[in-house]
Amino acid sequence: MELDLTPKLAKKLYGGDGGAYYAWCPNELPMLREGNIGAAKLALEKNGFALPRYSDSAKVAYVLQGSGVAGIVLPEKEEKEDTELVVLFLGDTSKAHKSGSFTDFFLTGSNGIFTGFSTEFVSRAGLGGSVVKTLVGSQSRTGIVKLDPSCKMPEPKKEHYNGMALNCEEAPLDVDIKDGGRLNGKAMCSPGFSCDSALQVTYIVRGSGRVQIADPDGMDWFSIITTPNPVFTHLAGRTSVWKALSPEVLQAAFGVPPDVEQKFSSKRKAEEIFFPPPN
């Protein structure tokens, strides 16, 4: 299959004055379908409220900007519980209805789960017909709504963060190179490949660059990998695959004389995978 690695923008699926929901389409990025990976983005305006829903896919949420409150209900568990908020979702769609796409099922709104049942059926939960009609019909909007500023939501509790949230900015770095960083301006990340067929989907959070060489303002990215214990091999640096090969093998493989092989092997042997810009 021919690979198209051109960066793509997400397309808006729905939204209103409370915000919008965007998704990357597997028809435009076939690797999402091939790798069973979904990608979407939620952008909420101030006082925006995403109606409760459940998804057919396991996913990781990364806050790109802003702050807000998220409530999460795990299967068969009880609930755990301003400014503009933008959240990136990346996740596994191997068990989803559509490979490469997230499908959300809304609990409320004009397309909420109750709208698929008759009033008589829902009223069997012990509710009167008028109450059922009010529950099902009062929220006429879908997906995202804007709440009145006076509407108060439950405040999050610190214990709810345990095992559920991680501040990537405060997490210790696996690799920290002076002037190489995350990538700092004009720094480079060593090229590499997956040894176990794992796929990696990357979202550029800020900055810009060429492949994995940062522009002067630097570049940050966020990725998910489709295996819990990925094995990557890099082509440069301390863990470079070339270090495991003898000079004779390298000379024969590249078809070069010993002096060229020696110059090649002597570079970037003791460094990590991030390289600071040349002086």
TrEMBL record:
Per its UniProt entry, which superkingdom is the organism in?
Answer: Eukaryota
Q: Specify the Cupin type-1 domain's residue ranges.
A: 3-262
Q: Extract the Pfam families matched here.
A: Cupin_1
InterPro entries (alphabetical): Cupin_1 (IPR006045), RmlC-like_jellyroll (IPR014710), RmlC_Cupin_sf (IPR011051), Seed_Storage-Functional (IPR050253)
The protein's name: Cupin type-1 domain-containing protein
